[in-house]
């Protein structure tokens, strides 16, 4: 019986192997570095990688374990960070030459959590320009002729290529769920406020959220539990206990969950294979899925999200835009020019609508356990044609709801297509339990 290469292990299995002494963190990191060397010339997932520093972290993890000292849930496990997350020991360049070589004196709060959990921080994964529209060089591991999605491009690609078992991204619209769908990984964006954003590039204080990429539900749950926590410096962080995501991802649903599918007016944007695949999923689940028409107010939330996002990035990054206008892409300049036309009154009206959307979904989940939805419009677009349509994440991101995408479908070009589930706020563990149930039910129907 052949032994799997360490780089191919899930994060949960890798953490268990390191904790038990069956695998050293050094050997795990060496295997990941070899995999990166083998594959990243074509994929280009990494903006910064220091193999010697990663091996030094791994050696220290092994020393700590052998000394019988306390170890954390990610002890010795490699993790990639989107290149908008500050670290004191490596550059954070935000996907633009404007910040080439940029360093900070402190770590982001989530990096502090990672270090406490024992993770080995491998480096920074490529992001789109300032975590927005304009793509960078990363390619889809399933086909280098296609995009990995954005803006968490490198994080999704690195996990999909088995370069690292875990990576962290961010989502202001669809920047975790969509690339996870395109690259065929599990992607999880927990409830807004579960994970601190201190030390992460701010594009929208109202909408920015941190999310995770992994190979299994257990992996994204493990990472989320490790980096979640209250942070008084983050205005949306809440001082309450977090859901037990690992427990949820491992639990059986006590009764079949009730799901809802919305007939949204933009569902016409789905590719034929995505539409047919999602219809097959609904058919397999039968009476557990209720189809509802979408009220106009729900559909109008797409414009609300855009108003908030564009207004706030113009406020938060005004100095950068003013001082480095000529270094910005034309795509970003268009957004900035549009965002600067949004009045304060229009922005405040959009925030009111956002709050009403949150109330609407709170009430919806009195009746349903989760929303079933597309994760993306279909397969990844060709490289050079953008990073894909984020609209199938927009409503749920606006409302700050927990979202997970499962790599369940395959398109005509043999590229992955995800299936998304959205749950009630602060019940992330129940959402992951529902996702586990969905996997089991679809496996039975296969």
Overview of this structure, please?
The structure is a single chain. With 446 residues, this protein is of the alpha/beta class. The chain has one domain (1-446): Amidase signature (AS) enzymes (Alpha-Beta Complex), CATH 3.90.1300. The chain has 16 helices and eleven strands. It has helices spanning 11-20, 25-43, 51-66, 109-117, 153-160, 177-183, 217-227, 245-250, 272-285, 296-299, 301-316, 318-323, 330-339, 344-364, 391-398, 428-445; strands at 46-49, 78-82, 120-125, 166-171, 186-189, 209-214, 259-263, 289-293, 370-374, 403-410, 416-422. Strands 1-3-2-4-6-5-10-11-9-7-8 form an eleven-stranded mixed sheet, with helices on both faces. A hairpin with a 5-residue loop joins strand 10 and strand 11. Helix 11 (301-316) crosses helix 13 (330-339) and helix 11 packs across helix 14 (344-364).
The portion of residues assigned to helices is: 40-55%
Oligomeric grouping of the chains = single chain
The largest beta-sheet arranges its strands as 1-3-2-4-6-5-10-11-9-7-8
CATH-wise, what's the superfamily?
Amidase signature (AS) domain
What's the number of domains?
1
Shape: globular
User: What is the number of helical segments per DSSP (H or I, 4+ residues)?
Assistant: 16
Strand % is 5-15%
Q: Give the CATH architecture.
A: Alpha-Beta Complex
Mean pLDDT: 97
Query: What is the CA-CA span between the terminal residues?
Result: 28 Å
The chain-level structural class is alpha/beta
CATH topology: Amidase signature (AS) enzymes
Reading the helices and strands in chain order gives HHEHEHEHEHEEHHEHEHHHHHEHEEH
Radius of gyration: 21 Å
The poorly predicted ranges are: none
